[in-house]
Structures are given as structure tokens and as C-alpha cells.
Write a structure and sequence with these properties.
Helix content: 25-40%
Strand order of the largest sheet: 1-2
Strand content: under 5%
Number of strands: 2
Radius of gyration: 52 Å
Length: about 425
């Protein structure tokens, strides 16, 4: 950058020179003009300057100032987001900083491809839509298939008649089964994550979301590798030589940082677990390969468990009832209490009625005579109503025909005289 703008800086340097330097330069110029040898040298210099100078193009200047991929990866915090095309941007460091920012959505990778989007999917048959499993369990596919077979079995005349007058309600499924399918057994569909975009060939990639390192090898993989029972994997020897994978520091590998299974043998024979990785003093390099620390931890754990009560807490008692049974028992208790209140009220009503009838007949329950002044002019009714009389909420007003004449005269009127006193 400094060499590129050197001509500009020289102009400012000339302004800063003192007057004495200018006078000395003028004297030097006069001396050179008087000397004939200097004139010849100046003429030769002018001839050399007249030759065309090689100027750098803008493309070469741009490439000269571009950082390399290695330099750009050293300047940013996340080197895995750097692509080889990032160095051609106007500000590579800002671009990589934005790409490494949290929750940033990357640009689809097909932006730099010369061919059209999804051009490579031509000729690939698109798989038909498949119903979810909870809808298949309702039996809708079998019902559709039977109706389709029945329609195909008919002749052309029946098909034309069915097309003109179609029958409705052929697909009948129990409502409870549909309700359970959508409200009980419905599964959540697979959704894309934040910033996950589709690109060509994404569906053909192997999905490693359910895979975990260090899991037991499948029987198919063991057969493909020629491994028998209790055989070590073929990559164990290299791991013992170079160390465990650094990307998985907590991964336990038998024969490397964990003890080998029972029945297996050390050695380099077919299926052997090689040589245990130890130092010159016989100490394990990568972990407890002999199982000595594990046994000590198990003993310590057994002592700790012996001191602590390991009985399950919060377990319901044997005589405890479930929520539905408790609710049913509470309802039964409420019904019994209501029935007891009704029986008590009825007994009180009968006792009051007996007392009133005894008073009306003039007899006293104690056996003494009742004064005649209390019952003079009174008649004992056959039945006594202790409840209040129920008042009617409404009354139907009768209609009667009207003799009125006119353009808007009504044909009937209401007799409001009988509705007087309605509460």
C-alpha cells in the first residue's frame, strides 16, 4: 500500500522542506547546467525515462491485496466457516465475522454454481406422497382399495352412470377411531431447523443424527469386516499407536482407554486386542485399560450405596386409590350426605304435622285436656301445606277477533283485562 501511494506522499514531503534546502537545490541545478558532462548524463536519463513504464492492472492490484485462505482462517474465531471464495469479497474479515455470528442463516451453496437450480434432478422419479402412520392405522387405505376394486369391476355403462350421478358417503369410518387418531396417536411431523435450507442432493445424504460414536457394532458390519465374537475392530491397533480420537474425549474404547471384555485376549493374533498402551513404567497412557480404577470406584460406590437408603420415595400406598376412583368415592359420599339431609327434613315435616293434628283434635300429647278457648271456631283441615305457594312466571293472554276497519287494522286483539294482577 505504501509503495502504491509513494508518489502522493512525495508531494507533501516537498512542502515540508525548509527554504535552505530549496536554495541548495537551486545551486546544484545551476552547477549541473554549467558542467557539460552532467548535461550528457541528463540527456541519457531522459532517454531512459521516455521508455514506456509497466503499470499494474487493477486485477493484479486486487489479487495482490487479497489475503490467502490460511491467513483469513487465522484472523477469525471460527475457521470452519471460511470458504475459498470469501477472499474475493470487498471485506473478507467482515464477511467471515457475519457468517460466524450466532443464528446467522447461510446463503444456499448453489449461488456460485453455473448450472441452473435443480438441473441435476431431471429424470429422477418423484416418490408419491405417503400417509402418516397414525392415519394408516384408521384403515382408510383398505377402505379406499375395496371401493376402487369394486369400481374397476363394473362395466363401462355403470362407470358412466356413476360419473353422472355419484354416490356420496362411501368412505365411512367410525368417529371415535378418527378422534383417537388425530387427538391421541398423532405424531409430530419432521420440521426443518432454524437456518436449514434445501440444496440439491440433500435427500440422498446419509443422516447421522441417530448415530453415536462408540456404540456396539451391528452384526452386518461385523460380517462385512470379518469379525467374530469377542474380536477387536481392525482400527484398534492404529488407535493404540496414535491415540484416541480427539473429537470425542469422553469416548470409551475397549483396549485403548477401557478394559477389554471378558473372554477376549491381548495380542496380535486374528481378533486380538494388540498391546495395551502403557508408558515405560507400565502406567496406562489414555485411561483405565486394565480396569483397576473401575474396581476401586465400584467398591467405593457399593460402600456409599450401603449407607444411603435406596428405597423408592413417592411410591403410592397399596390401599391408595387412583384419581378416578377418588372422584367416584367423593361423589358417592356427597350423594349419601344429600340423602341423609332429605330423610331428616321429611322426619321433621312429619313430626310437625302430627303436632298440628293433635292440637286440632283438642288432645294434648301429655294426656291433659286442651282448653276450649284455643280451638273455638277452628276447623282442622285434612291436609296442611307448609311450603309456599308457587307463583306463575307468566300468564297466557287470550285473543279475540277485532271488528276494526281500515288499511292497517288488526284482525285480532288481546284481552288484557284478565291479565291484571300478574306478578
Amino acid at each position: 500500500m505504501v509503495e502504491h501511494f509513494a508518489s502522493v506522499f512525495e508531494k507533501y514531503y516537498s512542502l515540508d522542506k525548509p527554504e535552505e534546502d530549496e536554495e541548495s537545490e537551486e545551486k546544484d541545478v545551476e552547477m549541473k547546467a554549467e558542467d557539460p558532462e552532467t548535461k550528457k548524463e541528463d540527456d541519457s536519463d531522459t532517454d531512459d525515462d521516455a521508455e514506456p513504464e509497466t503499470k499494474m492492472t487493477k486485477r493484479k492490484l486486487r489479487k495482490m491485496h487479497q489475503p490467502t485462505v490460511a491467513e483469513l482462517k487465522q484472523k477469525v474465531s471460527k475457521a470452519d466457516v471460511v470458504d475459498w471464495v470469501d477472499i474475493t469479497s470487498a471485506d473478507p474479515e467482515l464477511l467471515v465475522h457475519l457468517k460466524a455470528y450466532r443464528n446467522s442463516v447461510p446463503v444456499p451453496i448453489h449461488w456460485a454454481q453455473k448450472r441452473k437450480y435443480l438441473q441435476g434432478k431431471r429424470g429422477i422419479e418423484k416418490s408419491p406422497f405417503e400417509l402418516p402412520q397414525f392415519i394408516k392405522d384408521t384403515g382408510i387405505m383398505q377402505v379406499r382399495q375395496t371401493i376402487k376394486d369394486k369400481d374397476d369391476a363394473g362395466n363401462l355403462k355403470q362407470k358412466q352412470r356413476e360419473k353422472m350421478n355419484p354416490k356420496m358417503g362411501k368412505l365411512e369410518i367410525e368417529y371415535q377411531r378418527l378422534h383417537d387418531a388425530f387427538f391421541k396417536y398423532q405424531t409430530k411431523p419432521k420440521l426443518s431447523r432454524h437456518g436449514e435450507l434445501y440444496y440439491e442432493g440433500k435427500e440422498f445424504e446419509t443422516k447421522l443424527g441417530t448415530r453415536k460414536p462408540g456404540m456396539a457394532l451391528s452384526e452386518e458390519l461385523k460380517d462385512a469386516l470379518g469379525m467374530g465374537p469377542l474380536h477387536a475392530p481392525p482400527w484398534l491397533i492404529n488407535m493404540q499407536r496414535f491415540g484416541p480420537p480427539r473429537s470425542y474425549p469422553g469416548l470409551k474404547i475397549p483396549g485403548l482407554n477401557a478394559p477389554i471384555p471378558e473372554g477376549a485376549q491381548w495380542g496380535f493374533q486374528p481378533g486380538g486386542y494388540g498391546k495395551p498402551p502403557v508408558d515405560e513404567f507400565g502406567r496406562p497412557l489414555y485411561g483405565d485399560v486394565f480396569g483397576t480404577f473401575m474396581s476401586n470406584e465400584e467398591d467405593a460406590g457399593a460402600e456409599y450405596n450401603a449407607k444411603v437408603e435406596l428405597e423408592p420415595w413417592g411410591e403410592p400406598d397399596e390401599g391408595a386409590l387412583s384419581e378416578e376412583e377418588e372422584a367416584q368415592a367423593a361423589m358417592e359420599l356427597e350423594e349419601e350426605a344429600a340423602e341423609e339431609e332429605r330423610t331428616l327434613e321429611s322426619e321433621q315435616m312429619t313430626d310437625q304435622g302430627e303436632q298440628i293434628t293433635e292440637i286440632g283434635t283438642g288432645t294434648d300429647p301429655s294426656g291433659m285436656a286442651t282448653p276450649a278457648s284455643l280451638v273455638d271456631g277452628l276447623e282442622t283441615p285434612d291436609t296442611i301445606q307448609l311450603r309456599k305457594e308457587e307463583k306463575s312466571l307468566y300468564r297466557i293472554v287470550p285473543q279475540k277477533e277485532s271488528n276494526a276497519s281500515g288499511f292497517l287494522a288488526p284482525q285480532h286483539v288481546y284481552d288484557i283485562s284478565q291479565a291484571v294482577g300478574v306478578s
